[in-house]
Specification:
341 residues; ten-stranded mixed β-sheet; DNA polymerase, domain 1; globular; two-stranded antiparallel ribbon; TIM Barrel; 12 helices; alpha/beta; 2 domains
Length: 341
């Protein structure tokens, strides 16, 4: 709940309005698991709350650890489904890749999550629980605590806009986690109306799944291009100032012989010219029943160098967690959902 919602609870239960701030502190700062732990609330008020509400923190059902230190968690959702979350430690930086939907509607042909189909939106609680629970595990284990959160797990974040935006509000609000919005990145294939709202109502970083600068080819790889053309998305982004701390990044998964040619590099430079941005080049990881090829390392390096030499900051993202199916595009709970059914 937001502070306003906690205040509404206090009004409903005839509790002092200031109690809402005490509740928020217990939940978001002290990470309690039970209402009875709110020891500066009267016993009567705790009993009122406990009869109607719970903290809602759920532990992961399974934990998978990669040889490179990446950890994948399988979490239950509020409606009894399951989603995957990935923890990526890197020195003093630790990123959590959170999910926002069970499956995905976008059906990008190279993504395992899309093959699962769409089974519903996560609630704000489901989204925040991934962060809440993993941070608790890290504190208990003495691991590197979370420094960043990326909405790049299962699902299209802007297709679950209200719950995603509410979760980022709680993460950044003074009454909540009090994080800087620069610690949060929201990814999208480019849902234009929702993206404009995100740009206007949030200060979080934005990552756009691009994957090819050619309209017809992007339609084949990403059906969303038919409704949300990447050229229109970039025109929208150019209306905002990206020269300060806020950042827009383009995710570009490379497929051998498909989108890795000099022509693609030139068209990408044309498309992004005039926009202060970064391009992340990502190695594709094989997905069952998808006939795409992995790209050669030297091809990626040439592509990256061309972009950098032509004014587009570009990096090659290191692949993490591939051995536990935690790398980009590999998340899916289809098997677990089928077993549950």
């Amino acid at each position: 709940m937001t502070l306003k919602e906690l205040q509404d609870v206090c009004l409903q239960l005839s509790m002092p309005k200031f109690t809402a701030k005490q509740m928020a502190q217990w939940i978001y700062e002290k990470h309690i698991h039970e209402i009875n732990e709110m020891t500066n609330l009267s016993k009567a008020n705790r009993e009122k709350l406990d009869s109607l509400y719970c903290i809602g923190c759920l532990a992961p059902l399974e934990i998978s650890k990669s040889k490179d230190g990446t950890v994948k968690y399988l979490f239950p959702t509020e409606d009894g489904q399951m989603i995957e979350t990935v923890y990526i430690p890197d020195g003093d930086r630790a990123t959590l890749c959170v999910s926002c939907q069970v499956g995905c509607k976008m059906n990008c042909i190279f993504c395992q999550t899309g093959k699962q189909g769409w089974h519903g939106n996560l609630t704000t609680k489901d989204i925040l629980n991934q962060i809440y629970a993993v941070d608790q595990i890290l504190m208990e284990e003495g691991g590197t605590l979370l420094s960043n959160v990326v909405y790049m797990g299962q699902g299209e974040p802007l297709d679950n806009f209200d719950n995603v935006l509410k979760s980022t509000e709680i993460l950044t609000a003074d009454y909540g986690w009090a994080w800087s919005p620069r610690r949060i990145t929201v990814s999208t294939v480019g849902l234009k109306t929702q993206m404009k709202r995100l740009l206007d109502e949030s200060e979080c970083h934005v990552a756009v799944s691009l994957h090819t600068p050619i309209h017809e080819q992007r339609q084949q790889l990403m059906p969303a291009e038919k409704q949300y053309a990447i050229a229109d998305i970039i025109e929208l982004l150019k209306q905002y100032d990206w020269s300060h701390q806020r950042r827009v990044t383009f995710e570009y998964t490379m497929f051998g012989g498909i989108n890795d040619s000099p022509l693609h590099a030139r068209e990408l430079v044309k498309l992004l010219r005039g926009l202060y941005c970064r391009v992340n080049l990502i190695r594709w990881h094989r997905v069952p029943d998808v006939e795409l090829n992995e790209v050669k390392a030297e091809t990626m390096e040439h592509f990256c160098n061309y972009l950098n030499n032509h004014g587009i900051t570009s990096t090659i993202r290191a692949s993490r967690g591939q051995d536990i199916w935690a790398a980009c595009g590999l998340l899916s709970t289809k098997k677990q959902l089928n077993q549950n059914a």
